[in-house]
Fold these 4 entries.
Entry 1:
Amino acid sequence: MSTDGDLLAAYLDNNDESAIAELLRRHGPMVTATCRRIIGDHHEAEDAVQVVFMVLVEKAGSLRHAGSIAGWLYTVGRFIALRSRSAKNVRQSRLHANAAEQLDQLPDISPPEMADGLGDRLDLALARLPEMYLLPILLHYFEGLSYEEIASTLGTPSTTVAMRLSRGRDLLRRRLGVTSVSALTPFLEQAVPRNEPHLLSRHLHSGQPYRECHCVRTKSAESYASF
């Protein structure tokens, strides 16, 4: 199986759009779940995911030697989603203030909260993991890869993958303040959306390359050039 770096090289060297489509297939659900978890809005999460993959296209050259870009995509996705959520809250506050001048009563327009804040707590804990532990956690729990598949992707022995997953789970457990690894289940179940179509499925079948996509309503890819 081609590594993520191989796919980026194919895109850069041969203008192979199917390579980006394969990266989207591999990592799109994880990025989508992250953005949806943070933003809490289906449509704005879709916009954020599009920005993430636009940034990927812009930064492909610096990532072409990577075994897996899951960690990079998660980090960029979380950053963009947090920016989007912040902007959304500002917009809603302004809407509330303006409407309050004209109406005596307004419905509650505050953004929806994740149950018990599990999503925010999970993402904060993940963001603090070292890359060597974050990447196996993402590939195994968010993307469903087996130990052997992760080992092949990262070019490391399966025993090393198992050790890093065990250490990563232990770090997550401590940072989330839970007493056992089994208590991580409610958090990890938030990793991938259940029973809903993938937000970006239409792009996989439309043939529309991300570098030509102009439908993003959040910040442009150029705004995140520091990644």
Entry 2:
Amino acid sequence: MQLLFSVIGVTAFGAFALLFSMIVVRQQNRALIRQSEVQSETARLQIEAQREIARQQLEAQTEIARQQADVQLKASKLQFNAEVLSRNRQEWINTLRDELSEFVSYLTPLMATDSQAESEDPDRWQYFLENVRLIDRSAIKVELLLNAKEPESQQLSKLVEDIGTLLRKMDGVKSTKVLDALGNQIDDLVEQLVPLAQTVLKAEWVRVKNGE
């Protein structure tokens, strides 16, 4: 009987030990699973953090690239506008120079004519008046080309306007005395006009040279 109890006791102890071992193993497995889950979650969070950092870096690089492109585009536009402006200004200078040259070239032979001989010869007088009208039209062209906002251009415009006014007064005048007086006034204005025109053209040429 004692032997039976001993056998039963050993068997019960073994079963208990086995059960205990199974519980321990299960707990260990659970701990391993939990550890694996924690590691997986940590890895996932790290990956998400790296992705977020990469996304932010990409956005920053994209923004920097966009800003650089904007700056380059603006610089290109400014350069293009400067080139166009300089080219247009050069064309304007050439046109103004040609018109001023034509204006003065019309005046020179006109002022050298004999007003008395012109007034006594109908054909020569008609030719004289035609030249006056040509000069008048040339004066209007010059005035239209000048910049009314600049002081020197204003002075030049005033001289051209005054010359045009005197020329219009000559149209229809028969008195040689009056014609001579008007011619002398025009001579004085022309003497002022040429150096002033040179100053205006030089100033504009300097602007073109500087890329303004």
Entry 3:
Amino acid sequence: MRSNREVIESVAEELSSKLGRPAEEIIEKGLSAYDFNADEVEVVFDDGSSANFKYSFYVENPAKDLIAVFTEHCGYHLFRSSGATVMTVPESWVEIDEEATYCCERFREAVYEGKIKHADDIPDETEWYLPETGHIYFCPFCGKLVKGEGFGTYEEDVQKGETQQRG
């Protein structure tokens, strides 16, 4: 089994092209959380078996017969590209139940953990908000627009007389 650094070194030029950073910098500093998104990589082998990796991306080096898969939480992996097909499965809006959809699994988890809340009928210009900081326009994990319709602003609600003012 190769170390993460060895995997990076084996496809440093391909990583440089994908990430837009010099290969030497990637070898020296490694990857950061900002290099990953909510996509899933699936590698399907000729015998029908497969491997799936969440929060990952891949690069290929056909000259070396390599597929390198980089995951945010489960390390970096090398596969022979002959006898395998690799693809990115983008994380899309996934319906969890009849009422709620989420842009990615990490967003869903944050909602269930109470780190992100749905505005419901609370006056807010966005549909989702962070209790500590306020409304959000983009998913902090995958970057997709999550503004939604919102429910108006607090000021609009006060003008309608629907919000009780505390005095």
Entry 4:
Amino acid sequence: MATIMGGLIIGTSIAGRPYFGQLRAKASGVMRTTGPGGAEQIVSFRRLADYPLIVLVGCDEASVFGHFRTVKRDVLILGGGATGLVAFGGLFWIRLRRRSLASKQALSVTLETISQGIAMVDGAGRIPVINRRAIDLGCQPSYWPKG
């Protein structure tokens, strides 16, 4: 007859359980099974070499993986949010880049087709913009007076 001690049933036969064959066939291992309360359990076992005993140690799957699942969920949420921000920023940057290129192309076409000569000199004395008409009219840095 089985005796209940510390919440466990001592003396109960497990010979009819599906995992009993695995316990007898291997010297040690890990398996998943359903515990007495219906909760999934992870059970490690080892057969003792000098004794006719098999030692079983089990833990509820929820207690083993509970913290991992919480961290996994948080990391997935954070990673998904970060990925979304990077994707949004990338799309925004691509859009700005296309607009910038279109604007530069339109400015270039405008500068080349007008009849006036245009040259722009920045604060450092460099010429970032000059059109063909300005060069034809003699607007070249080598001809400019120094000083």
